[in-house]
Design goal:
This protein is α/β, with parallel strands linked by helices. It has one domain (34-207): 3-Layer(aba) Sandwich (Rossmann fold). It has helices spanning 48-57, 71-81, 85-89, 122-130, 136-146, 162-174, 192-207, and strands spanning 23-24, 36-42, 63-69, 94-95, 114-120, 150-155, 177-178. The chain has a seven-stranded mixed beta sheet, with helices on both faces. The structure holds flavin mononucleotide (FMN).
Amino acid sequence: MMVPELNYSESASDGQQESVAAVPNSEHAAAGPRRVRIIVGITGASGAIYGVRLLERLRRPNLEIHLLLSRSGIRTLEMETGLRLSDVRAMADFHYPIHDVGARLASGSFPVHGMVIAPCSIRTMSAIAAGLSSNLLLRAADVTLKERRKLILMVRESPLHLGHLRTLVALSEMGAIIAPPIPAFYHRPQTVMELVDYSVERVLDLLGLPAPDARRWDP
Ligand SMILES: Cc1cc2nc3c(=O)[nH]c(=O)nc-3n(C[C@H](O)[C@H](O)[C@H](O)COP(=O)(O)O)c2cc1C
């Protein structure tokens, strides 16, 4: 993965103050045959690389990616990967200001295949479980659940206290898929990216969009 020099030019604010509801990127947003829409959320848990790698692996002609980052997600993204907000936004077809709860992702009438939050913080996990739609990412997750679409949460925290565990159970009961980014070692990973890819490929499987080159256990 390309990791450009750390640049904090957009970190003084949350960089999400656009007045428009959705910002399309380049040629992707061009009209064409209807594409499968996926919402990718990146929140402030450690592991922003999971969200970035997911965006890379979802870059396919038939998919349309809608990106949401929380303020803390932007912070961890810059800290952990050296990528700028603009670098990551460029990987999606559309991105949205997190505060714009009136954007189309806030409505169940906007057809979307599913949503992945990668990584998902405890704060965001808890807010979704409580139905607190106080920003667009949380509202989009709530809509995904109420419309009975796939909501995949790559929750990352350790250790977990009983409240966390109960919240995970509640979310699972509501229909969310809890997919913590826990690495496996049976494929003998040699690099961090191989560990990251393992979890990302499992999420792609869960979305029903398997990566053609995904490595699988097949002894
Ligand atoms: C470097 C760093 C690492 C963090 N790692 C985690 C983490 O792994 N899990 C978590 O739940 N919160 C983590 N946090 C705390 C969240 O960023 C914080 O709770 C924030 O309010 C989450 O907001 P959000 O859900 O809107 O992104 C981390 C914060 C920082 C600065």
